[in-house]
Design a protein that fits this description.
By secondary structure, the protein is an all-alpha fold. The protein is built from two helices and no strands.
């Protein structure tokens, strides 16, 4: 008969959950605070800049579409 030792341990895993539409204003405010406070390194600024450009372009397309549908 072989002796087997059973070891139990808890492992914490971080799971990213996509923000809901109600979460985005606070998420973006927090990004702004972190940028103002210098908590985002200069070397990491290009990532948010590129993504924010994409987001703003999508936002403007959406607003333009809403404006056309209200006419």
């Amino acid at each position: 008969m072989e002796i087997v030792e059973i070891v139990e341990r808890h492992v914490q895993v971080t799971v990213f959950v996509s923000p809901s539409c109600r979460d985005w204003p606070e998420v973006l405010r927090e990004l702004g605070r972190q940028l103002d406070d210098g908590r985002v390194y200069d070397r990491d600024l290009s990532g948010p800049a590129t993504v924010l450009e994409v987001v703003l372009a999508a936002y403007h397309r959406r607003i333009e579409t809403l404006g056309r549908s209200n006419r």
